[in-house]
Automatic annotation (TrEMBL):
InterPro entries: AAA+_ATPase, ATPase_dyneun-rel_AAA, CbbQ/NirQ/NorQ/GpvN, CbbQ_C, ClpA/B, P-loop_NTPase. This is MoxR family ATPase. SMART domains: AAA. SUPFAM superfamilies: P-loop containing nucleoside triphosphate hydrolases (SSF52540). Keywords: ATP-binding, Nucleotide-binding. Coiled coil: none annotated. Belongs to the CbbQ/NirQ/NorQ/GpvN family. It comes from the Bacteria. Pfam families: AAA_5, CbbQ_C. Residues 23-170 form the AAA+ ATPase domain.
Amino acid sequence: MDQARYINKDETVFNDAQALMQLNKNLLLKGPTGSGKTKLAETLSETLNRPMHQVNCSVDLDAESLLGFKTIKTNEEGSQEIVFIDGPVIQAMKQGHILYIDEINMAKPEALPILNGVLDYRRKLTNPFTGEVIEAAPGFNVIAAINEGYIGTLPMNEALKNRFVVIQVDYIDGETLFDVIKNQSKLQDDTLINSIIKFNEDLRTMTKQGQISEEASSIRALIDLSDLATVMPIERAIKRTIIDKLEDTREQQAIVNAVELNF
């Protein structure tokens, strides 16, 4: 199974993202949860042969989470000294790697201005913990991902957003989704895969009508569902991977109805 590739019938999504990276532009991947934003970033990392350092944003994100922290270390002579352990931002800058900032709009707005100099033409940062000035090595790129409108997210600061070029990453369907399930899950039964795709189309329709939340029809959930379908009945696989994740009983019942119609 090829676990590392992003697939989309709209080839401009990947091709434009790669071109922007080669132009040293900051890339903002915008789309619903589970639509493949992280997979796209991983595929860019693999294609460009540049390792990726990841920051997972939350309301608890602070400067230490981004830049690193001081700690006490015992040296070869047996005495102790204070050293600074580089965080993901500084590691990526020094090594000319990719920095991936996931769910950037989950972070408190006051936590991110420290990255302004990293994200503009300067590609430079003064470490507030050590005073060291870090200039990004050639090859350094920034990719951020954003899920708009979800609980816990905040409107993205315009000054920050203006430092990125945006690519919309939507859910995939049809033959493209068939290829993803076939290549990235353990399920190889074509008939069952086609039934899962039809079931997912119903979920997407219910999502658009506001009957269920978007994560119920995510690619991530479908891959898990397809894996489980190789070791248990499809109805139970759907219960484990989709239905039981939802807290709203009306959403759960809507999916139960879709299961009965499709399987």
